[in-house]
Design a protein that fits this description.
This protein has 395 residues and is of the alpha/beta class. The protein has eleven helices and 14 strands. It folds into two domains: 6-20 and 56-141, Enolase-like, domain 1; 147-376, Enolase-like C-terminal domain (TIM Barrel, Alpha-Beta Barrel), CATH 3.20.20. Strands 4, 5, 6, 7, 8, 9, 10, 11 and 13 form a nine-stranded mixed β-sheet that branches. The protein has a three-stranded antiparallel β-sheet with strand order 1-2-3, covered by helices on one side. Bound molecules: ligand LR3VJJ5N and magnesium ion (MG). It is an enzyme of class 4 (lyase).
């Protein structure tokens, strides 16, 4: 049976957490002296909000079909992404069949290529693509993971990202990823502090629990190499994540050769599209790629990235991305576990990753989510009606 055509596309900005998960109040672990590329400037070292990490806010995209069914998605990109969606991308959807996601993606990407390719434009394209998959699922009355081929296992298992892997262990997660606090500009003293924090956490969690370090693009090759060796020897680090600038493919390839055998190099949350990930994989930059489903091009592009990774024997464990990741990871053998970002300020409790924007967002119980928890049409979530939506542009 033909699907109702797309009638209208709308884009909104929302403030306060959710998909823009760095947009948190004071005292949150996610803004507590975390090493960044801006840490070389002392005035921007203590808080990522000080240099504008949360300046954009969440982008909400709604796609309405002729029968009134609405698909929606959230990602980052805020007001500038609203402009791109309303003024540029909407034309490639309105009047079209929602099942034509390949052609729609292709037209969104190539029509913006002269000012796009990565970053904000791909966030906007990802938001539209995810809203389209949500709409398709709602129209077909199937969860997205069924549209993607169905689950290859009965449950998702998670590691937790946050300041308290010891608490994450008690909550049933399989590992904990800590943010790195001190970058190269804080010298040897900072390096010692980084190692001390890691070894202290290792003493709390015991030998068998995975511990990882998220370096958020803050290091240079020499520092990353030294950190990797010490963290491996002194604290049994499992992986070193996003150590270098996402543009430094050559640095990642060298880092992968430099680290101790057994320590994994991971990256990719700020990479985009099949072409960016092909660079990472062809240049043997890492052991695990970590696309963010809301930033890499959406589900339509992730299928291509994941298939290439599968053919190369590379593991793919998406960054954050909440339900958009859960519906994908459960369909893939080369994604054996998933990330859960601990958005509780402590973080001493499991709270939904994109709270308060989504309703019905599943959370890990004992570090796991059953496939059956995803059994609702589309991505299985609703937009919280109590959140004020601002629509800065129309078309
Ligand atoms: C904790 C990291 O600095 C960042 O905020 C999140 C991230 O990179 C990840 O979850 O991975
Ligand atoms: Mg990361």
């Amino acid at each position: 049976m033909p699907l109702p055509l797309i009638r209208h596309v709308r884009a909104f900005v929302v403030r306060g957490g959710g998909a823009d998960y760095h947009d948190q109040g004071e005292g949150h672990w996610i803004d507590d002296h975390i090493a960044t590329p801006m840490s070389r400037y002392p005035e921007y070292r203590q808080s990522r909000q000080s240099f504008g990490i949360n300046i954009l806010g969440t982008l909400v995209v709604e796609i309405e079909a002729a029968d009134g069914t609405i698909g929606f998605a959230v990602t980052t990109g805020g007001e500038p992404a609203c402009f791109i969606v309303e003024k540029h991308l909407a034309r490639f959807l309105e009047g079209r069949d929602p099942a034509d996601y390949e052609k729609i993606w292709d037209q969104m990407y190539f029509s913006t290529q002269y000012y796009g390719r990565k970053g904000l434009v791909i966030n906007a394209i990802s938001g539209v693509d995810l809203a389209l998959w949500d709409l398709l699922g709602k129209l077909r009355q199937e969860p997205v993971y069924k549209l993607l081929g169905g689950n290859v296992r009965e449950e998702l298992q998670f590691y937790a990202t946050g300041a308290r892997p010891d608490l994450a262990k008690e909550m049933g997660f399989i590992g904990g990823k800590l943010p790195l606090h001190h970058g190269p500009a804080e010298g040897l003293e900072g390096l010692h502090k980084n190692i001390a924090a890691l070894t202290e956490m290792r003493s709390r969690v015991g030998d068998d629990f995975w511990l990882m370090l998220d370096c958020w693009m803050s290091l240079d090759l020499d520092y990353a190499t030294r950190l990797a060796h010490r963290a491996w020897e002194e604290a049994g680090l499992k992986w070193i994540e996003e150590a270098l600038s996402p543009d430094d493919y050559w640095g990642y390839a060298a880092l992968k050769k430099n680290v101790p055998r057994g320590l994994l190099v991971t990256t990719g949350e700020h990479e985009a599209t099949r072409w960016g990930f092909r660079m990472l994989m062809d240049m043997e930059c890492c052991d695990i790629i970590q696309p963010d489903v809301g930033w890499c091009g959406g589900v339509t592009e992730l299928i291509k990235i994941a298939n290439y990774a599968d053919s190369k024997g590379v593991m793919m464990v998406p960054h954050g991305s909440s339900v958009y990741s859960y519906h994908f990871v459960i369909t893939r053998h080369n994604s054996p576990f998933a990330e859960f970002l601990m958005m509780h300020p402590g973080p001493s409790e499991v709270v939904p990753m994109f709270a308060p924007q989504l309703l019905g967002e599943p959370v890990p119980v004992n570090g796991r989510i059953r496939a059956s928890a995803l059994d609702k049409p589309g991505f299985g979530v609703e937009l919280n009606p109590d959140i004020p939506l601002h629509r800065p542009y129309t078309h």
